[in-house]
Design brief:
Structural class: alpha+beta
Oligomer: single chain
Largest sheet: 5 strands, mixed
Helix content: 25-40%
Mean pLDDT: 81
Bound molecules: zinc ion
Radius of gyration: 32 Å
Order of helices and strands: HEEEEHHHEEEHEHEHHH
Strand content: 15-25%
Amino acid sequence: MSRRVARRRGQRKLQRVGRAERRAAQAEVEAALQAEISGVVQRVVEQALADEVTALVGRGRYERRRVATPARTAAVCSGCQLGWTTRLWRAGSYGRTLLTIPAAVRVRVPRVGCICGSTVRVELTTIAPYERSWGDIQTWARELSGLCVSLADIREIVARENGRTLARSTLNGWVHQVADLAEALRRAPVTRVPPVVMLDGVWLTQLEPTGEERTDALGRRRAAKRRRKIVLLVAYGVDPVSGEHWVLDWHRATAEDEPGWRSLLERLLQRGVRTDTGLTLLVHDGSSGLDAALETVHFGPGLLRQRCLFHVLRNIRDAARGGPGMDRAASAPRCQRDLGHHRSGRDPAPAPALPRHLARPRARRRRRP
Ligand SMILES: [Zn+2]
């Protein structure tokens, strides 16, 4: 129970801090924080680069060359074609601007020289050759694009974070690399075979050029586009213990039909998703195309199949609610038609429809050989 506390006498109310004053103070702290973050990013990246060179030449900074034990390195001198640790030395550094999510920093990239006087080309793992932006920022830009954020908005978001504006063409290049990355992902074997695979069709609207041109509101000539419905047949991996879901593979199709589902299932099988690698259960929406495809693609003995409970409940809801724009009275006949024949005897509740839907997968479960 709350107790009312008596206000102490003689205590004055606090002076209100003005909004502008507070904002100015916060901006000052933010700037200090950003400077501090930039310093940390620069220090950590430079330390990682220095550690790489130390590992390469086999001795710490200011340690004499003779101290190092002679060993062949991965680096090769461009002059003498040798790469022994005892021939290599630290040859200063050059500056490079590096763009990361938290900050844009200027880092010193170490150079390596050889006692013959030539420079030694070293491929560092911390920064790729000619890399100006780090992988984290590229991944982030692709994620934002995946969430349908426009290139112009991605530019704003990234610039707000680290203070540097990226060229739209750079961002566009990163986003277009997604197709290649996705293709590489889908060619590789599935390293983490989930115990449960969930199959579902996701309908999307895609804009495709009609081949004609039109003039937009600002008077610019633009390619005319029309909307086209496409479906992505998606296989999700599910961890039943943690509840984690992730995308395993997908197939673009124009309908949720048997050929589409079959190509997705065949690729999953090719990539190593089988019962002997850990798959135990397939959850699906019970569409006829998928059912037919599952009859032709076999993931191994003992595979269980289950209809997705969510889809069953949604189908019942749609049948009971009627079509869009229909009132409850008008939709009643349809409701009765869809649900009525599931009722047994004088039982007035539509609930008995559920066990029938749920019983379907049991009857369709594949026989064990
Ligand atoms: Zn040399």
